[in-house]
Amino acid sequence: MTQQEIYNILKEKFGDEIIEFSHELPSDPYIVANRSKIDEICLFLRDEENLNFDYLVILSGMDYIEKLGVVYHLYSIKHKHRLTIKVFLSKDDPHIPTVEKIWRSADWHEREAWDMYGIIFDGHHNLIRILCPYDWEGFPLRKDYKTPEEYHGIKVPY
Amino acid sequence: MSERRKIEFDYSGVDTDRMRVNVGPQHPSTHGVLRLEVELEGEIVTEVVPHIGYLHRCFEKHAEAMTYPQVIPYIDRMDYISSMNNEWPYVIAIEEMCGIKVPEKVEYIRVICAELNRIANHQIAVATFGLDAGAFTPFLYLFRDREWILNLFERISGGRLLYNYFCVGGVRGDVYPTFKEDCLDIVRQVRATNKEIMDLLIYNHIFVERTANIGILPVDVAINYGCSGPVLRGSGFPYDLRRSEPYSIYDRFDFDVQVGKGEVGTVGDCWDRNIVRMREMEESCKIIEQAVAQMPDTGDVFEAIPKKIRVPKGEIYRAAENPKGELGFYIVSDGGQKPFRVRPRATSFINLSVLPEISKGYMLADLILILGSIDIVLGEVDR
To answer: Where do the domains of chain A lie, and which CATH numbers do they carry?
Structure first.
């Protein structure tokens, strides 16, 4: 199934929650969705018979300078089709429902997105830092991140 | 053959305390700086909490500050024992964005290098897995053979581990005149040693007793956790990007996708994951032989390399079959000299996340084996 067809199915099912479909070569096509029902959309994508996206390839946090984002790359092992979903979040309120119960691999990906971008996944059972030390401050992959002077008395930019 | 199952003891009437034990980060059998917080009841593992990040080198942040070709050496340092494979999806993604068609000869060089590197990676995986199980001799044999491959890579790229050999539109240097003969020599040597390893290690009764029916990973759990590579194929699911979505020229070669069949235990146990790696080495040998036979002798490997890389605005995700699984790069470009974002799909990171799930109920000594059978590289877990 092409991404255009999947977009049509989603648009019919979820209406305003699905915002747009973008396909400009040489880019990969992607769908932009609203954040509020992203868990329901993902569950539908996984369980619907002819979509069957049972494999979360990667979940990436993003910083688009004026806003944040989460990008889901999905793959269906059965039907061999791919899908990219983008969700934009404002920097003042970076909340989004978790999908860790739909794909267990999202657990660590979401922790990483929290660690690096400060995106809060509502409902995640253990949203703590994963790559940085547990008491690290700030979100290193944000574009406006300033490296701290020191960490526990150790000079950072040495 | 083996009868061992998950051990469940009735502790009623026995006064035991649950104990939290720290394994690593400085421990030879954690294959790097991985720290496992293990909760034990007697000798039985009841909970595993991996703590990672000791080798975090801010790859993604670095990539945003580098131009596109400058990122490649950093990619080498992610999974530092299969660097050739690492570079591939990154250059494929950029070539696709820029619309660069790679010369025929380059494609063959890339396939041969990637498959040789796959053999080298699996040699380390099997060798260290044997070491975890207490078999020291196969480790020496496999590392001796790996030297042949590293010597060949040193001749073509100048590096033994970190090659920086693939570049956008081609490779950094042409192969030397006796390259093909050397590849076939390596294939012969690998086959001879692997035959020996099969007798010495894989079907060794002690090894089978140690690894069969341990760390069973059912296929639905593996897919839900996003596992790929030998970890997923060991569970009996034939998912291989070289076959399901052939990139480069993999549609020209005849090879089998090896899966675990539960020959000595249950499908998806440690032994199955290991045998998949052993058999994949043979498949790689087959691909190398075919590629050497088909590879054109003449051709300019530099002709498609652009003087200046201008990646148009947009985003792309491209993946390749790494020895450890699906390695992909999600690259976002804003049209400038530097990538806006390079996000790797780090295979080891995702494969490691299944460890707490599959190691519960086994002995502490088995936990080390299960970790070894997943074949992680901490450079890729932490990036």
So the answer is: 3-155 (3.30.460.80)
